[in-house]
Amino acid sequence: MSVFTDISAALDARLSTMANLPPVASENEAYTPTQGTLFLRVTLLPGDTFQSSLGATGQDKTNGIYQVDIFAESGQGKAEAIAMADNVANHMKRGTILTYNSRQVTIRSAQRRTGTNSDGWYKIPVEIVFYSYTQARV
């Protein structure tokens, strides 16, 4: 089973189809940002997996967050970063069903969190909350 790999791939694939997508830094891949160029960083934050149904064909329900951090140059205002947060949230809207390797992932919500400044970047996290029903792990 490749539950987490499939979930991550489904969410990555969806994000990759967003219009005007800036550079994306993926987990455990080298990325050097260019000062003054907005970029995204994605992270899969697996949540609880729990039994959803009983029996030999029972399923688990895996919840989690696909976090898309938006990085804009610090000190240049918030408009560009907020506009990108809206674009990401609109593209990853609730009710969207994604499929990868026949595994379905449903987006439950997309919400913006508070922006912060650090190391010359202004960062706004967008949390895409998802769930996926999978074959029970035994």
Descriptive key words:
138 residues; seven-stranded mixed beta sheet; 20% helix; elongated; alpha+beta
Explain this structure to me?
This protein has helices spanning 3-16, 79-91, and strands at residues 24-25, 39-51, 59-73, 97-100, 103-112, 116-118, 121-135. It has a single domain, classed as STM4215-like, CATH 3.30.2000.20. Helix content is 20%, strand content 45%. The chain is elongated. Strands 1, 2, 3, 4, 5, 6 and 7 form a 7-stranded mixed beta sheet that branches. The protein is built from 2 helices and 7 strands; from the N terminus they run H-E-E-E-H-E-E-E-E. The model has no long low-confidence stretch (mean pLDDT 93). It is of the alpha+beta class.
Short synopsis of the structure:
By secondary structure, the chain is α+β, with helices and mostly antiparallel strands. It contains 2 helices and 7 strands.
Strand percentage = 35-45%
Write the CATH fold name.
Answer: STM4215-like
CATH class group: Alpha Beta
Q: If you compute it from the alpha carbons, what radius of gyration comes out, rounded to the nearest whole angstrom? A: 16 Å
Terminal CA distance reads 11 Å
Mean pLDDT: 93
Poorly predicted regions: none
> Any idea how many domains?
1
Major sheet details: 7 strands, mixed
